[in-house]
Write the structure tokens for this entry.
Amino acid sequence: MTSVTEIVSLLQLDGPQLDDLYQQADKVCRKHFGNNVHLRGVIEFSNYCHRNCNYCGIRAKSKNVKRYRMTAEEILAVCRKMEKQNMTTVVLQSGEDPYYTREVMGRIISAIKKETDLAVTLSVGERGLATYRYWQKMGMDRYLLRFETANRKLFRECHPDDDFIKRIKCLKALQKLGVQTGSGFLIGLPGETMEQLARDILYCTDLKLEMIGAGPFIPSELTPFGKAVNSFPKDIYFKTIAILRLLNPLAHIPATTAFDAISPRGRELVLKRGANVFMPNTTPLEYRKHYQLYPGKPCLNESADQCAVCVVKRLGAIGKKPGRGPGHAISGKPA
Ligand code: 5AD
Ligand code: FES
């Protein structure tokens, strides 16, 4: 059992000991995944959101955002292309948009399953057990829902219209259904201490997740947290991923997009320090610029085709290659 104190001391490593931490994380990653990096194409299919998370650029009250929704046919067209581009999973991500009801979303999932061999991951926020069950029946393989912070007070400060317990209930419901479940957190939220980060890492590990996504908090100008500062030094983000890998050897851990926003070649760096998944943006260009949760998002002007070519090059440059097969969980179901 690892303690908060132990994690904090790992987060404070530097010099040769830090190099050693990164090397160990990479070694564990290679042991289970070799040189393979699973590619999951993300479609940000709607930027409507009825919530008001204080850090997020597409929160309901953001008046400066041009809202869009993609049709089922538009989503399918992207999926058909994806298969030719080394991607074996589609991640359907949106704000919490009630327009995509249980049935509407269900039809999209089953159409993708019928027409392609893609694994289908959803990332559309908090819904009820019955809805998750229905989507699973329609073919949904996986679900992503970050808990964002394990500190109840900080969670309330970040999410004026949401509740930590409800969020965790959603995660538990998904796990009970046997949907491969991913969660994770933001690193460096306003007021977050190193001890809290350590607790988030441990909380995340305790959830026994099949997928773990964590990335730096990046202040987004026109949000209530627009003037906040992320007070952690950059290497804390990388250390977090390396520690998560050591504690969760079999989990799929993406090099999240936010790493590119804080550091040139940030996603490559994190793939060398424990991450094993890359999520190329496959949102059509006309929409992409309107899905800005935070500034500095990469690939805003590259088409899905360009990203697909680019990603293979980026992987090659660090001695990795696109993984084959659907990239399902190898961790088995949570105990
Ligand atoms: N900085 C970094 N990540 C953010 N997200 C939302 N807003 C920001 C921000 N300002 C992340 C959240 C969410 C995921 C889809 O994007 O963690 O779960
Ligand atoms: Fe999008 Fe390189 S991954 S341009």
In short: The chain has a mean pLDDT of 95. The CA atoms of residues 38 and 323 lie 5 Å apart.
